[in-house]
Amino acid sequence: MTVATFTWTHDYGAALTEEPLVQRAQFGDGYEQVAAAGINNRPRKWSLNFENRDYAEADALVAFLRAHHLVFDWTDPDGAPGRWQCKSWQQSHPAPLVKSVAATFEEVFGR
Prior knowledge:
This protein is mainly β. The protein is about 15% helix and about 45% strand.
């Protein structure tokens, strides 16, 4: 399966969120068992901004996300490659003749 690669450069200020996936079993006496949920249990999530881009660049970036939001390759700001999805993004018009795009990339496995 050929997967598209996201190549736009984001602005400084990218933010990484990690929320390990766990399975919990709660018992009536207050006891709880916790275990990692699978082998890929720490997916990364990056909040990215692409500020003040000309219409052509912003529109191309959004067109990529619309076409490949389920899975694409991307190398994160720490230099770690991975497979990602983008469930939502926002566009704004902060000034004449430019657009800004904000997106959250979530790491996926096995696609």
